[in-house]
TrEMBL record:
Reaction(s) catalysed by this chain's protein: 1D-myo-inositol 3-phosphate + H2O = myo-inositol + phosphate; beta-D-fructose 1-phosphate + H2O = D-fructose + phosphate; a myo-inositol phosphate + H2O = myo-inositol + phosphate; 1D-myo-inositol 2-phosphate + H2O = myo-inositol + phosphate
Sorted UniProt keywords: Cytoplasm, Hydrolase, Lithium, Magnesium, Metal-binding
This protein's GO CC annotations: cytoplasm
Protein name: Inositol-1-monophosphatase
EC number: 3.1.3.25
Length: 282
């Protein structure tokens, strides 16, 4: 299985790079950045998101015809978001669509691959920085092209930088919760709070030791599937925002180094968005 998995992972890296090239070219063409909206007026999608997801899925289907997919834009178009034991590609064609639309320079192609409901490898291509992050669920871990993982050993949370995002839900109660967590964390006080505008890149920042932790309520499985392996293989931990094991379908995540995770979890004002795998409401 090892060689088989490596073969699949090599394909994921190649197709992520190809997708990244499409994204970079689209950035120079206003038409390809025309905005449509999904769950709210600030949940953006472009024809490039759809095109890139199609490109990835078609390329994988040619090589691995029995594999299944959970793709952000396919789910938006009505496909089920259900993880089975079958080999499944979990795809976010553009993580950071808002960044893409505004030319804010953090945009990633994120591909996680799951078997038996466990993510086996993750590939995050931060395509405007041209950084490829990969990790496989074995002892080895690697970040290609010299982007070495330099995991943070800081254990004093007051010396940390914490990453988070504001998401695309603007309901008053949700915004209140987001600010309540943010206030608690700023008041620790931490050195700073940052957000790249993409969950996948935020998780790679944890794996690289640039930030000590990343947390968010409202993410989707395609935002974090790839990053989850990258963080764990770098030596980090994943947790639910109220402690306990993370559930990638729950839309809640903390990814952190060992020293700060417990401190961050204490400060989060948790809530529970509708799960990614919830049956559709009629
Ligand atoms: O919609 P996209 O661009 O794929 O996802 C980007 C994003 O908004 O999704 C997460 C919340 O859902 C955030 O962490 C992240 O910034
Ligand atoms: Mg995303
Ligand atoms: Mg996306």
């Amino acid at each position: 299985m090892d060689d088989v998995l490596q073969n699949i992972m090599d394909h994921a890296v190649a197709v992520a790079r190809e997708a990244g090239q499409v994204v970079r070219e689209a950035l120079c063409d206003e038409k390809q950045r025309d905005v449509m909206t999904k769950s709210s007026t600030v949940d953006l999608v472009t024809q490039t998101d759809q095109r890139v997801e199609h490109l990835i899925i078609q390329s994988v289907k040619k090589k691995f015809p029995t594999h299944r997919f959970i793709g952000e834009e396919s789910v938006a178009a009505g496909e089920a978001c259900v993880l089975t034991d079958d080999p499944t590609w979990i795809i976010d064609p553009i993580d950071g669509t808002t960044n893409f639309v505004h030319s804010f320079p953090f945009v990633a192609v994120s591909i996680g691959f799951s078997v038996d409901k466990k993510i086996q490898f993750g590939v995050v291509y931060s395509c405007l920085e041209d950084k490829m992050f990969t990790a496989r669920r074995v002892k080895e871990h690697s970040v290609t092209e010299n982007h070495l993982m330099l995991f943070s050993s800081i254990s004093d949370v007051r010396r940390s930088i914490i990453a988070t995002e504001f998401g695309s839900n603007r309901e008053t109660e949700t915004v209140e919760k987001i600010f309540s967590s943010l206030r608690n964390i700023l008041n620790i006080p931490v050195h700073g709070v940052r957000g790249a505008g993409t969950a996948a890149v935020n998780m790679c920042l944890v794996a690289s030791g640039c930030v000590e932790a990343y947390y968010e309520v409202g993410v989707h499985v395609w935002d974090v599937a790839a990053g989850s392996v990258i963080v764990e293989e770098a030596g980090g931990v994943l947790m639910d925002v109220e402690g306990g094991p993370v559930d990638l379908m729950s839309r809640r995540i903390v990814a952190a180094n060992n020293g700060t995770v417990a401190h961050i979890v204490k400060e989060i004002d948790a809530f529970s968005p509708t799960r990614d795998d919830a049956p559709p409401t009629q």
